[in-house]
Amino acid sequence: MTGIARDGAVQLVNEMARRFRAGDHDGAFDLLHPEFRIQQPESLPHGGWHHGRAGMVAMGAEFARHWDRAIGEPRVLDCGGSAAVQITTQTWTAKSSGRAATVDVVELFSVADGRIAEIRVFQQDTHALLATLDEPGAGRSAP
């Protein structure tokens, strides 16, 4: 177990963010639990539950079909040793229209066995994000 893993959720979340910002995607994925899953709002094109590294990569690819994104400096809050909350301000710019929306994004992180086991993502205003797209109904339909 690495020193990062022993330090708890806040340190893991900060380390994952650092690795992604540095372009070390493999290193960031190394912090994921073998049974990792991530949830995005169902209304977004990349919405739903995604499992494992492959699921996270596929989710990111679907996101990247629609938007470019700028992410502000993360604020990470400790919710006990096995949980943390990350808050970022993000600007999503639609590739199809050039329109952009800036929203706060709250991510709930859960840690198990010294690795990130789950992320649940909550964008402040998915309607504003979807409105940047050219395609009517570009989001996913509710089940």
What brief labels describe this structure?
single chain, 143 residues, Nuclear Transport Factor 2, Chain: A, seven-stranded mixed sheet, 5 helices, 7 strands
Can you walk through the features of this model?
- The longest helix has 15 residues, at 52-66.
- It is built from 5 helices and 7 strands.
- The chain starts with a helix and ends in a 13-residue tail after the last helix.
- The chain has a single domain (3-130), classed as Nuclear Transport Factor 2, Chain: A, CATH 3.10.450.
- The model has no long low-confidence stretch (mean pLDDT 92).
- It has helices at 3-7, 9-21, 25-29, 52-66, 126-130; strands at 32-40, 48-51, 67-71, 75-78, 83-94, 100-112, 115-123.
- It is of the alpha+beta class and 143 residues long.
Give a quick rundown of the structure.
Residues 13-119 form the SnoaL-like domain. It comes from Actinomadura craniellae. Helix content is 30%, strand content 39%.
Termini gap: 41 Å
Low-confidence stretches: none
Which percent bin holds the helix content? 25-40%
Strand content: 35-45%
Structural classification: alpha+beta
CATH second-level architecture: Roll
> How many strand elements?
7
Q: Given the C-alpha coordinates, what overall shape results? A: globular
Largest sheet: 7 strands, mixed
CATH-derived topology: Nuclear Transport Factor 2, Chain: A
- Radius of gyration based on Cα positions: 15 Å
Q: What's the order of the H and E elements?
A: HHHEEHEEEEEH
Kindly give the count of domains.
1
The number of helical segments is 5
Q: Provide the residue-averaged pLDDT.
A: 92
